[in-house]
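Researcher: I'm preparing a figure for a lab meeting and need a structural model of a single chain. I don't have an experimental structure, so a prediction will have to do for now. The sequence is pasted below. Please return the structure as tokens so I can convert it later.
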Amino acid sequence: MKKGILQAVALLLVLLVVAPVASAKALVQLDRSEAIRLAQKEVARPTQVAATSHVKGSGQWTVTLRQEGAAASDRIYVMLNARGEVQEEGWLKNGTLKPVQVVRERAVLIAERSIGRSSQIRKAGLVLTPSSLNWEIIGKNRDGRVWTVVVDAFTGKVVSRQAGGKEPELITKNRAIAIARAEVKYRPRQVAAELTQFRGTTAWKVELTKENGRHTNRDIFYIDATDGKILAHRSQNSQPAKNISKREAISIAKKRVGVPCKVQEAKLDNWQGQDVWVITLAEEDDPWAWHIVVLQADGSVRQEVHVK
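Model: Understood. Here is the structure written out token by token.
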């Protein structure tokens, strides 16, 4: 009997190593309104939504936009993954998709070289013309002059470069913090904000944090520094684990077996970073032993071995 128990425990350890417990967190799906908002942030001109499509399995959204002043049949399309990240964008012309070959970050670097490496980029977005799709980048060089640089989204060629115009006025740090605080339901105890770049746009990065024992709320916002619109929001909130007790683990194991049993051993162990209860039970009427592994965090049974 003892030998059988030792063999079963050894087998159980092997099973736990080769089949680690995986946490199943459902992917938060991007909704249509948020997908449209993110897609429109990729464009420098006012747009209207022409069409949207959604793939439920992957959570991917494709948003097709009609730019004001552009040819009636031309569209800008933006493909976003379930996290709101741009996977592809480009020109929809006569039913054919033409993805950009120069991404926003690359276009911004080209514009910076054009007006000076120490320049500050304020805005970057796509613009349709009768013959192509371009990136329009607005920035200020170290002399304080505001430049508008147009970069071909397919070749990377600087199409035009024009100085002049009024620099976009930036919202204040306090205003950005107020916008972020209005989006959360808790009162943050720590607040930090800094001016940075987010996908080619000057933005306020605002971090809100509240720690309450084992529960932590932390939200990071990227807010357009010129119009106050939220460009991105990342939430990193942790909830305290509701661990089950030894008595509860034994009860779960006995219910799993379904016949009268005596507890031979109940110990807490850790495998693959997961805390588990290992419960050894002996049947009262038969020479059988059970080894049940119960996840401490939620009481789910992860493994069981039945030996004689």
